[in-house]
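[step 3/7] fold_predict: job queued, chain A
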Amino acid sequence: MAQLIYSAISSLDGYIEDRDGNFDWAMPDEEVHTFINNLERTVGTYLLGRRMYEIMMVWETDPNLAADSPLTQDFAQIWQAADKIVYSKTLASASTRKTKIERNFDPEAIKQLKKTVQHDISIGGPELAAHAFRSGLIDECHLFLTPIVVGGGKPSLPENVGLELELLEERRFGNGMVFLRYRTR
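[step 4/7] structure written:
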């Protein structure tokens, strides 16, 4: 059965973007990006909200991004090879291949997806992930903590959700970023 994995790059104080919506401080260096690429190779499907989809779709729609380096080209290939399900009430059509739009998050459909796909499923964006957390669907959390305190913004984890976690892996990178991999109990 596929695992549903929530992955986020967060400030040390728990935000994926600051009060102004900026997240340039979260850009991974080469060491971290290589590690992320290797994690993402197991993903066969991405579940995304509209905003996260619009941020990530450039990995398919902007060829200059992939041409930046072998590392970014590798990530673009990983992204393009995966199926994508975008949850949006407003998005009329997808700008990328292998992309399906759903109007509502259906926990039963995700349970069925986990049973039928062979590769892991990644859920991106804290607002969409909150639905999965509240429905008890998240199997693992991959958190990248950036050595910065932004003082507020969009939280990386949902409010009003209690969850016991078991630490499976940790890694410190040269730039001070820390990776934490947890399994939900």
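[step 5/7] annotate
The mean pLDDT is 96.
The first helix runs from residue 30 to 40.
exit 0
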